[in-house]
Amino acid sequence: MNPSALTIDLNDLQAEFNCRVQHKLQEVQQLLLHFSQNQNADDIVLHLHSIFLALANTSKSLGLEKHSKLAHDMGSLASSLLIRNELPEPIVDKMGSLLNQLMRIANHPEVTATSDTNPTNATNSKNHATTERLIEITHQPILLTQPLIMLQMTADKDAQELTSRFQQQGYQTQRFTSIDMLIDLLPSLSPSVILLDLDIFPEQPSGEFSVLLEDLRKRYCAIVFLSSDDHFGARLKSVRLQGASFFAKPADITAINKRVNELLLNRTSSPTRILIIEPRRHQSELLKQQCLKMCRCDVLEVNAYYESLTRAIEFKPDLAIIATDQDGAHGKDVATILKQYDSLMHLPCLMVSSHKANSLTPKIVQDDAPILHYEHPNFINNLLRSLQEIIPIQRHLHEQLFFDSLTGVLLENKFTEQLEAMISSAKRYGALLNCVIIDIDHLNQVNRQYGFWVGDRVIRQLANTLTKRLRRSDLIARIGGNKFAVIMPNTTINNAGKVIGTLKDNFGVLPHITVGNTFYCSFSAGLSSFPQFESAADLLKQAEKNLAAAKNEGRNRISNSP
Asked: Please, which residues bridge with residue 350 across strands?
């Protein structure tokens, strides 16, 4: 066999790989942008990790060693994002830098070929010609940005007022005039919320409309529809088109602004947590896959009922799906046991059964526990319909009962309950625990000079900073007007101080922009640790004492004196 023929075939494969990989790298760039806005999104990280692994293996098999090394390094960074032992922002920056390098060498395969495989001049010329046909990619660094809101509104006055309000709250805005313009803009943008005119959508979207809705669903982008028709039929159409909210024209600017803030707050919260208690692994996997199709969620599968309580307490689910026919127990009994635990008292339980249904509608075991039957011909549709009904209601109730409406972090009373439980666990397992009290410096001056709504924006920005950059295992609560409490388990007080110090420095250089002015804020913090202080009251008291010391020493500092 002619060796030169093999060389030509290999370079043909390399050129084809470079053409295709650029589309995948653009997808990676969008995923990184999504993650930068929601750093609790482990599903995005897992998707990135699988992409990097595939790129590394394929490029190595094609002899593209540089491609393979860069993809392998990005996969390692994705793994570190899942572990959460350090702040995600520098990891995302490194990943963005490596991505830009991979984009450059993929966009210039003749350079890569020369360094990796030493092709002939003829092959170089061919690869150069191939380069001319490649899609141009703008190599921009991955930046952490404020949420982007896109608006399509027919009334200029309404659009201008909404745009002004969103910008004053620190959001980015982008107006567009048609669906075609939106489709052209989306590849280069990462919107969190889109306001769309419902009147232009057909009842059964197809073609570009269907592709657009699917694209927005994959991006976890919330859609707010506006319509000149306020009848039930228009609202039904909005729901069927995956609308997160509906408003009739003329637009109520205040109501839309409030709803968009709620959607953005929900978007940055953690995914829905679904616990599946099903002894049969095949059915368990079926349920998991349907849940993942339905919503952005974390799923925990438990295949033994006697492990369900311990796993549920650790997992803190928003919903439990429980098989009625457990090995040694009835699903109803398992649900009752879960609900007897204080933190799971309001947990909705969806029951599933392998026994054939006797009717076309789900039976009710408890007020909130319908039974769905695997053998029913409409099982999948019934399951998805139940999830659609239960999850939004549960999330809303959960947020009202547990979370601060301005910031999305825990309320003070729920924080105290959680802290007591974490101390009990730390005592049982001999673990470390650190308490941090954070207070924004001179916020009253901001309120007097710029208005309370600007002060609220500063509070919300600090909450976003804490939520995005701390570990999921860390507990965050708002315990006063401009005061936050953080519990950091399984780390030393020195490490906790370093992390909070980095957050303090980053928050201090974050610009807060209002009409005609840009200003900066700082915060002070006090730390305390378990087991040095063994009760929740003592931990909080010492942290407050150290916070007062930090403020007396000049603010914008941290104190962890014993």
From this structure: 321
Q: Which residues contact 473 (CB under 8 A, 6 or more apart)?
A: 84, 489, 490
Q: DSSP states of 361-390 as a string?
A: S-EEEETTEEEEETTSTTHHHHHHHHHHHH
CA distance 501 to 507: 10
Burial class of residue 290, CB neighbours in 10 A (0-12, 13-18, 19+):
middle
CA atoms within 13 A on the CB side of 476: 22
How far apart CA 369 and CA 332 sit, in angstroms, is 8
Q: Please say whether the beta carbons of 407 and 463 come within 8 A.
A: yes
| pTM for the whole structure | 0.46
More confident call, 218 vs 307? 307
- pLDDT at residue 111 is higher than 70: no
CA distance 106 to 1: 30
Percent of the chain residues past pLDDT 70, beyond the cut: 77
pLDDT at position 103: 79
Decide: 301 and 330 in contact? Cβ < 8 Å. no
Q: Which residues contact 514 (CB under 8 A, 6 or more apart)?
A: 168, 450, 454
Write out pLDDT tens, residues 453-483.
788 888 988 988 888 778 777 889 999 888 9
Please state the φ and ψ torsions of residue 483, each to the nearest 5 degrees.
-125, 135
Q: How far from the centroid of its chain's Cα atoms is residue 42's Cα?
A: 7
Q: Distances from the Cα of 185 to the Cαs of 140, 212, 242, 308, in angstroms?
A: 16, 12, 20, 47
Helix then strand count (H, E) for the chain reads: 20, 18
Residue 522 has a CB neighbour count (10 Å cut-off) of 15
Nearest to 434 by CA among 468, 475, 478: 475
DSSP bridge pairs for 247:
226
For the stretch 166-214, pLDDT in tens is: 776 667 788 888 888 888 888 878 788 899 888 888 877 777 788 888 8
Reading the block at residue 540, the tokens are 């909080």
- C-beta separation of 128 from 85 below 8 A: no
Express as a percent the part of the chain with pLDDT over 90. 10
Q: How many CB atoms lie within 10 A of CB 456?
A: 18
